[in-house]
Amino acid sequence: MSISEAAISTLRETLVSSVIFTPHDEGYADALRRWSDTGAKPAAIVIQPTEVKDVVTALGWAQDHHIDLAIKCGGHSVSGTSSSNGGLVIDLSRMKNVTVDTIKKTVTVGGGATWKDVDEAAAEHGLAAVGGTVNHTGVGGLTLGGGYGWLSGMYGLTIDNLLAATVVLANGEVVKASATENADLFWGLRGAGYNFGVVVEFTFQAYEQRNLVYAGIVAYTPDKVESVIGILNTLLLDNPDPRSGAMCIFARPPGAPVPMVNVLVFYNGSKEEGDARFTDLLDLNPVVNMIDMIPYSQLNSLQNPMATYGGRKSFKGVFFNPPLEPIFAKTLLSDFTAKVQSDPDLGASGIILEFYDMTKTLEVPRSATAFASRGSTQNGIITLRWTDESKDLEHRAWAREVQDRWKVNLDAAKVDVKGKADVPQYINYAEPGDSVVSNIYGENLERLKQLKAKYDPTNVFCKMHPIRLG
Ligand SMILES: Cc1cc2nc3c(=O)[nH]c(=O)nc-3n(C[C@H](O)[C@H](O)[C@H](O)COP(=O)(O)OP(=O)(O)OC[C@H]3O[C@@H](n4cnc5c(N)ncnc54)[C@H](O)[C@@H]3O)c2cc1C
């Protein structure tokens, strides 16, 4: 696809607030940069607006000239769903204002903000919202696909706390979506939201969060993997606590010869309460214990050193119905260890298994939002990282093979779990082509098709799990 200079000049002349990057402009390479190099593509033009008017103009321009379009918020899509090969990127990253209503305890945030912007602005008023656990991820992508975070145990998913959104539709109309305005669109935004427009503003319910939280990594040698998983299963199933959560992360800390069993623990309470909650884990003699009392606004930065920008990455979601079989986890760790030891270029890879209390999330009926995987299934991610582009296919194939094994394990488990969803895979951990379920929207697909026909009949927003008409 090639775009004429005349067309680009027309766009330049009509935009009022945007910084514009074409290949001739300084800063173009930076504007293409994404969290993973695999997600970066050479757009013909990138615009970074601060006013909604420019989003409307650019959307119209792309359609008039039949130009490929991508919308970017935090830029964490590893397959490039927020990038365009030769087309236009509307990069919302300058639309990141956060305003806090301390009376209603709400946070209103621009469509290009990161969770760091939200966490820090809310903390100034003793508040917190249910956001992502790595604070440089975008509010946009995470919210539109559902959103799990450390506060999900207490308050549910990010979408369960979304009160309103302002959306620029494909036809250029700017509309509000909430329980009382365009309620059908509001339903679709919460779980399938990348399909309907550019969300330029989100309003979330926030909550008092004045106390410090108990959080940090405890690390164990690989031989402890079965004991660790056993303890995490017990905490989740026999002793659920909405104030608590954990992630088990197989990864090689700097200096370690092999991947270790690292557990990131969280308790929204005092040190005594946290120690009591995790006493069995602490008794297991970790080789590292970095647990501390920290502000909530710092919690979502703890994983940043393991989730840095750069390199080529694959991000493949897995899922399990707890209890996770300790022996299965042990096999997984040993296969993962063999894989990363076979190629030193994979040294910064990891496998993350979440253990969140889903009770609050399950209080919302599955039909209340478009989020199809609402259930008691837990999520995980195989995140490989390397630099050698010639290894892309090989590494992705390995991750896919492991991903398939998880699905077989889940199907075989036949656990009768309350709230088990027909679509077990979390949409935000399944980029297009990586989904191991055939229909990521499950029973919501027909209703979503009707919404797509109403709000985006020509499929302008088609990059992330597109809803196909016909
Ligand atoms: C390191 C890391 C940590 C993560 N942690 C969590 C976590 O704790 N909890 C969780 O639930 N998920 C998590 N995720 C998954 C995350 O929710 C998705 O990767 C999400 O899509 C990232 O959004 P983004 O805005 O950063 O990415 P982008 O690449 O900018 O966007 C992703 C998709 O959403 C669309 N989009 C983004 N913003 C808008 C908007 N305002 N309007 C319309 N479309 C938009 C884009 O067009 C694109 O298709 C994590 C991912 C990574 C890589």
Automatic annotation (TrEMBL):
A Pfam family assignment: FAD_binding_4
Annotated ranges, domain FAD-binding PCMH-type: 38-209
Superkingdom of this protein's organism: Eukaryota
Keywords: FAD, Flavoprotein, Oxidoreductase
Family recorded in the similarity comment: Belongs to the oxygen-dependent FAD-linked oxidoreductase family.
PANTHER family per the UniProt record, alphabetical: BINDING OXIDOREDUCTASE, PUTATIVE (AFU_ORTHOLOGUE AFUA_1G17690)-RELATED, FAD BINDING DOMAIN PROTEIN (AFU_ORTHOLOGUE AFUA_2G00730)
Annotated protein name in UniProt: FAD-binding PCMH-type domain-containing protein
Organism this protein belongs to: Aspergillus cavernicola
